[in-house]
């Protein structure tokens, strides 16, 4: 498993649950790294119990239904207390899903330019299929009204394709034909966050 991928998967988990403790994150990570999460089907996972984390059962079943996660540990004797919380079985499943998503393939092209005025136009019919993420950094603000920017466009989609785009940089208009090449989603996240 890639360290960068795991770090990003944990970062996403922290963003989703900013009030959870370090020990909650740590327990989720232990479950994930020990390979205890198995996908049963699209919305059901089986998590092997770890006695050292206080589990009393050999396995737990986590389900995702109507936008919420449910764990079979809710039905145990501690269920009433646990129901209001998100247990670390669920957290391990979320980590597993984050990791899987980050490890999945996407198709991308990157444009780096330096301009004062810039614009990228993607054909309207590709809206929804192709995503464009822009990151901008000022490189020269000596002309305060017209600072110069370093701009990176990351164009990506779930399938390989050729995208015709129009790039405007300081009045220079270019017609581009971008071939979206296979990469992994975590690379996109590293480029765009
Ligand atoms: Zn649980």
Brief synopsis:
This protein has 193 residues and is an alpha+beta fold. It has helices spanning 3-16, 22-33, 79-82, 88-102, 185-192; strands spanning 37-41, 44-48, 59-65, 68-71, 105-115, 118-121, 130-140, 148-157, 162-169, 172-179, 181-184. It is built from five helices and eleven strands; from the N terminus they run H-H-E-E-E-E-H-H-E-E-E-E-E-E-E-H.
Overview of this structure, please?
With 193 residues, the protein is an alpha+beta fold. The chain is built from five helices and eleven strands, in the order ααββββααβββββββα. It has a four-stranded antiparallel sheet with strand order 1-2-3-4, covered by helices on one side. α1 crosses α4. The structure holds zinc ion.
Global shape? elongated
Q: What is Rg?
A: 22 Å
Helix/strand order, N-terminal first? HHEEEEHHEEEEEEEH
Oligomer: single chain
Q: Please state roughly what percent of the residues sit in beta strands, choosing from under 5%, 5-15%, 15-25%, 25-35%, 35-45% or over 45%.
A: 35-45%
**Number of DSSP E strands:** 11
Classification by helices and strands: alpha+beta
Q: How far apart lie the N and C ends?
A: 21 Å
List the ions, cofactors and other small molecules found in this model: zinc ion
Question: What is the number of helices?
Answer: 5
Summarize the main sheet: 4 strands, antiparallel
Question: Helix fraction?
Answer: 25-40%
Give the low-confidence spans.
none
Rounded average pLDDT: 92
Strand order of the largest sheet: 1-2-3-4
């Amino acid at each position: 498993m890639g360290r960068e991928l795991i770090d990003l998967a944990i970062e996403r988990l922290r963003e989703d649950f900013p009030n959870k403790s370090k020990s909650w994150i740590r327990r989720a990570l232990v479950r994930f790294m020990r390979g205890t999460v198995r996908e049963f089907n699209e919305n059901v996972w089986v998590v092997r119990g770890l006695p050292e984390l206080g589990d009393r059962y050999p396995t737990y079943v986590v389900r995702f239904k109507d936008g919420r996660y449910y764990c079979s540990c809710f039905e145990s004797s501690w269920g009433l207390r646990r129901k209001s919380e998100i247990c670390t079985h669920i957290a391990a499943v979320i980590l597993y899903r984050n990791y899987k998503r980050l490890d999945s393939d996407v198709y991308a092209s990157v444009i780096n330019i330096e301009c004062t005025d810039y614009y990228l136009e993607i054909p309207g019919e590709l809206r929804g299929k192709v995503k464009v993420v822009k990151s901008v950094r000022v490189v020269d603000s000596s002309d305060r009204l017209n600072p110069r920017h370093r701009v990176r466009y990351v164009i990506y989609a779930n399938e390989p394709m050729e995208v015709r785009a129009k790039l405007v940089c300081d009045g220079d208009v270019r017609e581009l034909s971008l071939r979206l090449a296979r990469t992994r989603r975590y690379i996109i996240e590293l480029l765009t966050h």
